[in-house]
């Protein structure tokens, strides 16, 4: 039985995300500037749109509106990944989705550790996009072996963190003192280390193979490489970044600006060149620099069904066949225009999206529906009839996951603007799940389940009313 003195996983996750945010603002001052800009724009957006304010008041906790929604790390080995799964599990974060980024020229595959379920997401939605380096995609065998050797020797978790994870697993939770210690110990894994664990020569060779490999292999641990607050107006923040002295990436990733927001739109400021030092041959430290850390913002819309996602993927592909966004931003306007034009084929009305089976919706009883239920009257069994008669309403279910093409765009723009490298597409979810030590949750099945449950609740209410007649 669960001891009542244990701190909830949701509370541990909240403390952890707050601690991470404070650490990252401290480590990367430009990120603090971005946070302040996001808070300002969110405030202005809410002031200008009382309807949005009312809607958010009903569904979100307003004081947390500008807080982080996600962060990202890159791991080097299967052992690191499976231990990370156990760490996140203590915070109520579970692997959802499999993302193969090899197709987009990035030698990793990934999942997102996130809270699952409405109550947990509302309490604190923080998630971590977690990538595992794929050394199997590195052609140079000698370099591959050397990198594997460096990775095998490092320890990214403190002994105490490992101990506390074991304790949480054994006892089914952590008490207040242990939870506090856990957050502090786990934070260490995500900390920036400006002293590399390789020589400048080795760094260069790793870097030449792929910049991402240098980022993963050369350091003591998987430093958090970005955090991402939620914005209510991504286009505005993107436009205002330069005024604040931060350089945005060329274009916003994902769908264009629309009335009915779909999936996920994200953008970031470009990764900073930061001073680091490498192990010198003579034992002295040799100074150099490394580019990896940045700040990102996101705006989420409705979760799409496989049919809706296929349409999204097709339209994105069609756009990119017309024009690909250049890293230097020179054709950004052209790309945005093409994106908007091509996406006219995607319905921009909630009921049309719903009727076409493109998105997932949560159904609920209206005031009229609740009264009808109380008096034992109902329109019948059919959800469409109940909607038409005004007994049932529907709201879009928010997409809580990620998009591989967008993720690749974020990776690329923050690994430097040089031409992307080609890798043969080789999704390997079986290998990923073996390394993870668990299967990942299928996000489509998850959203479908939420939709189905909401529908059944409405229909159940209706049938109960029928029975009472
Ligand atoms: C992860 C990039 C993916 C997102 O928001 O799509 C990501 C990384 O750069 O490690 O965070
Ligand atoms: Ni991100």
TrEMBL record:
Ordered alphabetically, the record's keywords are:
Dioxygenase, Iron, Oxidoreductase
> For this UniProt entry, which residues form the secretion signal?
none
One Gene Ontology MF term? dioxygenase activity
- Pfam families named among the record's database cross-references: HGLS (PF07063)
Q: Which cofactor does it need?
A: Fe(2+)
Spell out the Gene3D superfamilies in the cross-references: Uncharacterised protein PF07063, DUF1338
Q: Write down the EC number.
A: 1.13.11.93
Q: Which SMART domains match?
A: DUF1338 (SM01150)
* InterPro entries cross-referenced by the UniProt entry: HGLS, YdcJ_bac-like
Q: Which residues form a coiled coil?
A: none
Q: Which family does it belong to?
A: Belongs to the 2-oxoadipate dioxygenase/decarboxylase family.
State what protein this is by name.
Answer: 2-oxoadipate dioxygenase/decarboxylase
State the organism of origin. Answer: Mycoplana azooxidifex
Taxon lineage: Bacteria, Pseudomonadati, Pseudomonadota, Alphaproteobacteria, Hyphomicrobiales
């Amino acid at each position: 039985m669960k001891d009542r003195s244990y701190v909830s996983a949701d509370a541990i996750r909240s403390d952890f995300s707050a601690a991470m945010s404070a650490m990252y603002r401290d480590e990367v001052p430009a990120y603090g500037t971005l946070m302040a800009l996001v808070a300002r724009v969110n405030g202005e957006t809410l002031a200008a749109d009382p309807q949005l304010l009312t809607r958010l008041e009903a569904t979100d906790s307003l004081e947390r509106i500008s807080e982080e929604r996600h962060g990202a790390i890159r791991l080097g080995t299967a052992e690191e990944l499976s231990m990370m799964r156990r760490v996140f599990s203590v915070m109520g974060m579970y692997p959802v989705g499999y993302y193969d980024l090899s197709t987009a020229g990035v030698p990793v595959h990934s999942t997102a550790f996130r809270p699952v379920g409405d109550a947990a997401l509302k309490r604190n939605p923080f998630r971590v996009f977690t990538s595992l380096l794929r050394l199997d995609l590195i052609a140079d065998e000698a370099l591959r072996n050397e990198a594997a050797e460096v990775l095998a020797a490092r320890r990214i978790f403190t002994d105490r963190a490992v101990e506390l994870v074991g304790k949480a697993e054994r006892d089914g939770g952590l008490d207040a003192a242990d939870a506090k210690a856990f957050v502090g110990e786990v934070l260490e894994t995500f900390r920036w280390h400006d002293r590399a664990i390789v020589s400048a020569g080795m760094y260069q060779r790793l870097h030449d193979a792929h910049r991402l490999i240098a980022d993963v292999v050369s350091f003591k641990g998987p430093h958090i490489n970005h955090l991402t607050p939620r914005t209510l107006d991504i286009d505005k923040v993107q436009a205002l970044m330069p005024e604040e002295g931060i350089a945005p990436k060329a274009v916003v990733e994902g769908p264009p600006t629309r009335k009915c927001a779909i999936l996920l739109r994200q953008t970031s400021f470009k990764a900073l060149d930061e001073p680091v030092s490498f192990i010198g041959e003579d034992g002295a430290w040799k100074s150099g620099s490394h580019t990896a850390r940045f700040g990102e913002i996101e705006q989420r819309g409705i979760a799409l069904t496989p049919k809706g996602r296929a349409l999204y993927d097709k339209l994105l592909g069609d756009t990119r066949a017309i024009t690909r966004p250049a890293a230097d931003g020179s054709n950004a306007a052209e790309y945005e225009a093409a994106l908007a034009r091509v996406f006219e084929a995607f319905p921009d009305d909630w009921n049309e999206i719903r009727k076409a089976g493109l998105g997932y919706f949560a159904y609920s009883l209206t005031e009229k529906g609740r009264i009808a239920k109380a008096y034992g009257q109902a329109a019948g069994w059919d959800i469409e009839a109940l909607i038409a008669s005004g007994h049932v309403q529907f709201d879009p279910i928010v997409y809580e996951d990620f998009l591989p093409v967008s993720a690749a765009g974020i990776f690329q723009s923050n690994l430097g603007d040089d031409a992307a490298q080609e890798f043969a597409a080789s999704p390997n979810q079986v290998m990923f799940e073996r390394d993870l030590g668990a299967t990942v949750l299928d996000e489509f099945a998850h959203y479908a389940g939420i939709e189905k449950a909401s529908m059944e609740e409405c229909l159940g209410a209706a049938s109960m009313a029928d029975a009472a007649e």
